[in-house]
Write a structure and sequence with these properties.
With 722 residues, the protein is α/β, with parallel strands linked by helices. An eight-stranded parallel barrel has the order 3-4-6-9-10-11-12-13, surrounded by four helices. β1 (22-24) and β2 form a beta hairpin. The longest helix is centred in the first third of the chain and has 20 residues, at 152-171. It starts with a helix and ends in a 43-residue tail after the last helix. It binds iron/sulfur cluster.
């Protein structure tokens, strides 16, 4: 059954070029797939979890698998972000574990050494931040501290720290050592850019002077590696801020001047926000216009990214000389086995990245990486999940899944992969639940992949059947004879104003036109174009902003009201905040931030300032409420109420998953469905081995790294009580 999915077929010869080995200085990449350095929210806190995650990618066919940026010194402390550290020899074992795991999987291990300069506020180390110039630190939180301009001695010290980190990287077993000058996160870029380098000495002014530090770091790293590891340079090709910043014209000169030093050029765009553009704001291969033409300036291989999931696009970029290696961060998260699937002729099985940047939100919230498409991401060691493998069923219990949204589809798919007979019943005519609806909104078409991949996999599983237009009552569910029932019936948006600001319903006149997102995608509002729509967003993720766009496209005069100080505030965690706020304004949406909706009347709405409480009334023909959702859990509740009937129906368990349990992100719904399938008939108490090796009693437990305690009491400090 599932073996049909796994059976390799010969790879399509069109893709042969992707599997040619590439020499990178002293090392040989087995193919052209390179997992570029990417953050993951694990860092120094969760090195074993990271090792397992990277290993799965190596096993999945990537020729090179890299770490995220690795802080080289306490003056590069990016707290609160959790990245890897290589401050001293004590950090080597954690880094070595990751390198060993990558080697176990069959790939070369790359490490990205980073001194973050003025991007490091040093909140933990409390060292004064360092930068080319005396300027405020460049952090997301606008920390109230400035970097001091580095002296010549500071620069010499930085070079020593970087050399020491390179030596430690070699000791940890890495094959490829990065010098980082990208994403606005590295001091080497801060020196390169006239926006951040206003020095007048030998490290400032002319381009030759501004590139001096990068030249020195590359030279030092090359000397330290001395043919035992390759040297890569990750370089921003354009900061896209015009003449005041680092421009392509200058980067072309840098590439030519420094080409003898690295063994690999890794080309990125501007800041992290620019380089990791979501699908809502940019297509696959979106970096191509910025990178094209640079390859001919250098003699070393070039890697670049572009959220690549199409092997045809990859081949084209290689053949047209844009890139030599296909770089990937997000596509390798969504499908760690992407290269292997191309190699095995299973392109249809690739779980394509949807470009939502939920993975980035892990790093931004200092939590373990997660992925909308790949629920096993970050769970490889913690819970023992694998993106491709799952243990066989323990018994032939037939399972009914009610609801075919992201949670129901993933539960059915994973249960089917385990070999369980599964029936999915869906009340509507389409599979996909909220994803099917939301992917029709502006910019979200790629999100449809969440449904398409799962339905494609379900089609290959003979033991899984789906029935549409099949609303199911508790009586019917009990009468079908399933041993287990999974309730994945989703959630619906509230129409009473309750959300974060209001925890009780607001006054709404019965004659007022009030709609929810569910109303919007079930039928167009029956008002003529030009009607005044007030969209109240107290949800703060993407939907309010996207619906505002959609309503503008429908010809409405849109006012977006939100208690937050920015539109779609949580999209800061998906690197979209700036684009969202720019777009709604460019579209002509009237934006009222710091205001809460207080009441709705016929043709008008009252809002209050969240700071002063002062109220104002604005005209509104329709009010759209994007505030909070209620689980649709009637079936679950009724089945639990009828527990006395379970034995008669041969029913052993009823479990609620996804939004029907607790509304959240699509990623959370997919994860919830997967968790059901993983936990079913699993070891009692879940997978969380306690420190004594026994099973943890709490099913919510998972494996975690325990802090190694330092010797206690500490060595005498020399301070006396005189
Ligand atoms: Fe792609 Fe979204 Fe997964 Fe990130 S979370 S890898 S953007 S699908």
């Amino acid at each position: 059954m599932f073996a049909a999915i796994l059976r390799p077929v010969p790879r399509d010869p069109r893709y042969d070029i992707l599997f040619e080995p590439v020499r990178i200085g002293p090392v040989l990449a087995r193919n052209r797939f390179l997992q570029v350095p990417h953050c993951n929210g694990m860092g120094y806190r969760d090195p074993t979890a990271q090792a397992a995650m990277r290993r799965v990618k190596a096993e999945g066919g990537w020729a090179v698998v890299c770490t995220e940026q690795v802080e080289i010194h306490p003056t590069s402390d990016v707290t609160p972000f959790i990245e890897l550290r290589l401050w001293d020899d004590g950090d080597i074992p954690a880094l070595a574990r990751i390198a060993d795991a990558i080697h176990d999987g069959g790939a070369l291990a790359g490490i990205e050494l980073a001194h973050n300069g003025p991007n490091a506020p040093n909140l933990t180390s409390r060292e004064p931040p360092l930068g080319p110039s005396a300027l405020p630190v460049r952090t997301w939180a606008n920390d109230p501290v400035q970097a001091r301009a580095m002296t010549k001695d500071d620069i010499a010290a930085l070079r020593r720290w970087h050399r020491a980190a390179a030596r430690r990287a070699l000791a940890a077993g890495y094959d490829l050592v990065y010098v980082y000058a990208g994403h606005g996160l590295s001091v080497a870029q801060h020196f390169l850019s006239p926006a951040t380098n206003t020095r007048t000495d030998a490290y400032g002014g002319s381009l030759e002077n501004r590139m001096r530090l990068l030249r020195e770091l590359l030279t030092d790293t090359r000397e330290e590696c001395d043919g035992r590891a390759a040297v890569a340079c990750r370089l921003t090709v354009d900061e896209l801020v015009g003449a005041g910043g680092l421009r392509r014209e200058e980067v072309e000169q840098v590439l030519v001047a420094l080409d003898p030093l690295p063994d690999l050029w890794d080309l990125v765009l501007g800041t992290w926000e620019l380089d990791s553009c979501t699908s809502r704001f940019g297509p696959e291969a979106g970096e191509e216009p910025f990178v094209a033409g640079l390859r001919r300036l250098v003699t070393k291989p070039v890697v670049g990214v572009g959220r690549f999931t199409s092997p045809d696009t990859m081949v084209r970029q290689i053949r047209e000389g844009v890139l030599d290696l296909i770089g990937a961060a997000r596509p390798s998260i969504a499908d760690p086995w992407l290269p292997r699937k191309i190699e095995e002729g299973r392109v249809d099985d690739i779980r394509e990245c949807i470009g939502c940047n939920i993975c980035v939100s892990g790093d931004m919230t200092m939590s373990t990486v997660r992925c909308t498409q790949n629920p096993s991401m970050g769970e490889e060691w913690r819970r023992g999940w694998h993106p491709e493998r799952i243990r066989p069923r323990a018994c032939p219990d037939p399972i009914l899944v009610v609801g075919a949204g992201p949670a129901g589809l993933e539960a059915a798919r994973a249960l089917g992969q385990r070999g369980y007979p599964v029936v999915v019943v869906e009340a509507s005519r389409t599979l996909g639940g909220r994803v099917a609806k939301e992917s029709g909104l502006p910019g979200l078409a790629a999100w449809r992949r969440v449904v398409d991949w799962r339905t494609g996999q379900l089609d290959k599983l003979e033991a899984v059947e789906d029935y549409r237009e099949s609303p199911t009552t508790a009586e019917e569910a009990l009468g079908y004879g399933f041993a287990r029932i999974v309730v994945a019936t989703g959630a619906r948006w509230r129409a009473d104003g309750v959300g974060r600001w209001h925890t009780a319903p607001i006054p709404i006149d019965p004659d007022a036109a009030v709609l929810t997102p569910d109303d919007l995608w079930s039928a167009a509002p029956a008002l003529p174009p030009g009607a005044r729509v007030l969209l109240y967003d107290d949800d703060h993720y993407y939907l309010g902003g996207v619906l505002a766009e959609s309503l503008v496209a429908g010809g409405y005069d849109v006012r977006l009201v939100t208690p937050a100080s920015v539109v779609s505030s949580w999209t800061a965690n998906t690197l979209e905040l700036e684009r969202v706020n720019r777009r709604v304004r460019e579209l002509g949406v009237t934006v009222d931030t710091d205001r809460a909706l207080a009441a709705v009347g016929p043709g008008e709405a009252t809002t209050i300032c969240t700071w002063t409480g002062r109220s104002a009334t604005v005209a509104a023909d329709i009010v759209v409420l994007v505030t909070a959702r209620l689980p649709v859990d009637d079936l679950h509740t009724e089945l639990l109420r009828r527990r006395a009937d379970w034995d008669r129906a041969d029913l052993r368990s009823v479990t609620c998953v996804g939004d029907a349990l607790a509304p959240g992100t699509i990623a959370a719904a997919v994860w919830s469905g997967r968790r059901y399938a993983e936990d079913l008939d699993g070891p009692a108490g879940g997978l969380g081995d306690g420190p004594d090796g026994g099973q943890a009693a709490d099913p919510a437990a998972y494996r975690r790294e325990y802090t190694a305690l330092a010797p206690w009491p500490p060595e005498p400090s020399g301070v006396t009580d005189e």
